[in-house]
Amino acid sequence: MRKNILISAALSAMALAAVPAFAAGPGDNIKQGKSLGEAGYEWNKGDGEDAEALKAKPDLKNGRDVYEVCAACHLPEGWGLTDGTFPQLAGQHYKVIIKQLSDIRAKNRDNPTMYPFALPSQIGGPQSIADVAGYIQSLKMNPKPGLGDGKDLAHGEKLYKENCVRCHGEHGEGDNEKFYPRLEAQHYNYLLRQYQWIKEGKRRNANPDMVKQIQSFTDRDTKAVLDYVSRIKPPKDKVGKVGWKNPDFK
């Protein structure tokens, strides 16, 4: 199974070059998203598939089956890649996963690499979103995430405590009920890319309060705070052992 998944990842990467971004067909039942600040777009409005998925009771067995599609890029363990190409998903909050997956499907968050694999034709409808979110949340987190250079951590800690704690928590734990993602132990390079996209308005489903707050951050500020965040240790009961392999995908 694991070998097949890795082969699938390689084939998927090659196939993406031939897939137009957001190439939705007439039967995809996906609504068009709107740009950040465009009339009609409201952050986390909850009037799409996310609302339906949040009402569902997650079936972790089906979630495991759905996750096989995700595992090709995010790995069976949900740990992503330390170079930040693919983020760690393991241990992420249930509601955050539902929101982000629903936003990608609704085109409120641009992700042409993931989009073709997130369609209802590939993984199912709102119930499947709930199922896979429940499964991902149950996975143990990567004990060795990708880090920055570690040269400016005191500055990063200061910035984090002054700017980020209110939403993401003292330890980067986020908030499931408010849809704020868990940041602790996320890959540095992934954080860096997403942060820049949020600042530039490219990640269109970002919280507008965050977009405004980080506009004054310098390059030094950005690198320092994200390096600090990537090094925050999650609670021990949420972290996997070094070298752990997900037994669900043997």
Question: What is the topology?
Answer:
Elements: H1 2-16, H2 49-55, H3 60-74, H4 94-105, H5 115-118, H6 120-123, H7 126-138, H8 153-163, H9 165-168, H10 188-200, H11 208-213, H12 219-230
Helix pairs in contact: 1-3, 2-4, 2-7, 3-7, 4-7, 8-12, 10-12
Please name the CATH architecture of the largest domain: Orthogonal Bundle
Quantity of strands, as a count: 0
Q: What is the terminal-to-terminal distance?
A: 5 Å
> Mind summarizing the main beta sheet?
none
Q: Could you say which overall geometry the principal axes of the C-alpha atoms support?
A: globular
SS-based class: mainly alpha
CATH superfamily of the largest domain: Cytochrome c-like domain
Radius of gyration: 18 Å
Stated plainly, the CATH topology of the largest domain is called Cytochrome Bc1 Complex, Chain D, domain 2
Number of helical stretches of at least 4 residues:
12
Q: State mean pLDDT (0 to 100 scale).
A: 86
* Total number of domains: 2
CATH class of the largest domain: Mainly Alpha
Helix content: 40-55%
